[in-house]
Design goal:
eight-stranded antiparallel β-barrel; Alpha-Beta Plaits
Length: 207
């Protein structure tokens, strides 16, 4: 499977209208393929929506998108209204032992942590991650961990749902207290890190 992350930056104040328009249009789009997640940012980069589409392959993506654009109800049309100031599309694959969570309620807070890995180091990083992620998931579930395949290179995302900010702090402190997280050798492979908090839209399969 591959996962396309489409990140749109909206004009200030546009979020409610964009969500309403997307929800209405998605009822027509889902017959071609369904979302795996849809988030809106709350902390970090503001006024962003992130919609994630799963596909079996690049060919499957092309076929689905070609069929969807023939539908008069898709795309939603908010870009034509001037409500979008930037669009970005990136394709990711899941990291070892880190599949996308099944639809369900895990949040309502999702932390999206983005790491830029040193060039040439991704295979080593992924092995360390896959061998050790069970240490971290003993304290809170993982929504997904992925590495970039098309778009920004050397990018690693891990997405963690939490019931509250307090539960986030507790889980992170418990993992750190083991002395095994982050795993040995991981930090030296990372060039830079960033994090943002997002919440799911009402129609997102992950809540």
């Amino acid at each position: 499977m591959i996962y396309e992350f489409r990140t749109y930056t909206l004009t200030p104040g546009a979020m409610p209208k964009v969500l309403d328009m997307f929800a209405e249009a998605y009822e027509h789009r889902k017959k071609y393929s369904e979302l795996v997640a849809f988030w809106r940012t709350e902390f970090g980069p503001l006024n962003q929506i992130i919609h994630v589409w799963p596909y079996e392959s690049a060919q499957h993506r092309e076929e689905v998108r070609a069929a969807a654009v023939e539908d008069p109800k898709w795309p939603p049309g908010f870009a034509q209204l001037g409500l979008v100031v930037d669009q970005r599309a990136e394709v990711f694959k899941t990291a070892p032992n880190s599949p996308f969570a099944e639809p369900g309620t895990y949040g309502p807070i999702y932390e999206v942590r983005e790491y830029i890995i040193k060039p040439g180091s991704m295979p080593t990083f992924l092995q360390i991650w896959g061998d050790n992620v069970h240490i971290r998931t003993a304290f809170s579930p993982l929504a997904a961990a992925l590495y970039s395949d098309v778009g920004g290179l050397n990018k690693f995302l891990h997405i963690w749902p939490y019931e509250s900010m307090e539960s986030r702090t507790e889980a992170r402190n418990q993992a750190s207290a083991t002395g095994q997280w982050p795993p040995e050798g991981e930090l030296r492979l990372i060039e830079r890190q960033s994090s943002m908090l997002a919440t799911p839209a009402p129609f997102s399969p992950l809540q």
